[in-house]
Amino acid sequence: MKPIPYGRQFIFSDDIRAVVDVLRSDFLTQGPTINEFEKKFADYVGSKYAVAVSSGTAALHLSALVLGVKKNTKVITTPITFVASANCVKYCGGEVCFADIDPVTYTIDIDQVSRLLESSPKGTFSGIIPVDFAGYPVNMEEIRTLADKHNLWILEDACHAPGGCFLDGKGEKQFCGNGKYADLAIFSFHPVKHFATGEGGMITTSDEGLYNKLRLLRTHGITKDPSMLSHNPGGWYYEMQELGFNYRLSNIHSALGISQLKRADEGINRRKKIAETYNKAFKNTTIITPMLQNGFEHAYHLYVIQVENRKALYDYLKENQIFTQVHYIPVHYQPYYIQFGYKKGDFPVAEKYYEYCLSLPMYPALKDEEQDFVIEKVIEFYR
Questions:
Q1: Which residues 6+ apart lie within 8 Å of 53 measured at CB?
Q2: Which of 164, 324, 332, 353 has the most Cβ atoms closer than 10 angstroms to its Cβ?
Q3: Predicted confidence (pLDDT) per residue in 88-122, tens digit
Q4: Which structural domains are found in the chain, ordered by start?
Q5: Secondary structure E strands in 62-104
Q6: Rounded to whole angstroms, how far apart are CA atoms 101 and 89?
Q7: Among candidates 256, 201, 233, 160, which has minimal Cα distance to 61?
Q8: Are 336 and 329 in contact (CB under 8 A)?
Q9: Shortest CA distance to 82 belongs to which of 345, 334, 360, 364?
Q10: pTM confidence score
């Protein structure tokens, strides 16, 4: 049996042809393929606008900037996420405040957020960054109600959840990142995500003003749009109107993204089938499998179990060429965040989750016989 990773890209010959076609074209950067990718991705998640950028982290940084994060801005997020969800606030000089997680969904606990807001002076916080953890959608309708009550913006970190959705109060299906409730949402196209572009990210929104600001900031703050220029001496002329960044995505990456997007439904259906197989195999064991509440559709970027003797199981599976992972070390455990006063015991639900969590292999290219081997070795360990 070849090594089995916890996640990996799935590249088809069509993907390779799409990239080669761009390499043979006139544009490697800033060409029409980028706009095509943005349009098709916006259509996929149901948003009005999409802005392609160089990574999920770049998407978070630009989003925090256009939402007005600066010195003394306080933003709430979850401690169970990749550090970039919190770091984007620090990049802009703001302050990160964590709220504990829900013990069932592992996403941010809305009741904890509400208590944090109610116990703080009015106007203390400016926004909230909920994370659709492992592919499980946050109830953005509830988050929006809470945000409106306290005049907060919402930046949805949907990196794990393209294709995930929930039923709102009217029984309508709301897809992660569709712009219905969040001001902005971000996605990542890292190789282990649903769509691989090598590196890359996307920001979605229904707000035209935010959309235009994002497009400006991702390209050094420079524009050649005649309607935006202070004056226009000729076709060569451009203006730097903001201090922006080079956070552009290339045509090469975009072509791969468009090709990968064509298999979106196929990929998520395969992920759901893998999850069902795991669920069935572990049903009568002590292993705690991911919860799926009525009205929610999990995108299964990760398949996270809760187990006793996690370290021993991790090592045993590694010995058998099965490479699992822990998602995530609580952000407030990181040395960088400890310097701001965070410590063990601050978020007990998140910390308990961390002690027992383990991500098993989950990706569309996982073969049935490989999954069977993973299941066999997990069960064998606990006999």
A1: 59, 62, 200, 201, 202, 203, 218, 247, 248, 249
A2: 164
A3: 999 999 999 999 999 999 999 999 999 999 999 99
A4: 13-261 (3.40.640.10), 264-381 (3.90.1150.10)
A5: 74-77, 95-98
A6: 19
A7: 201
A8: no
A9: 334
A10: 0.97
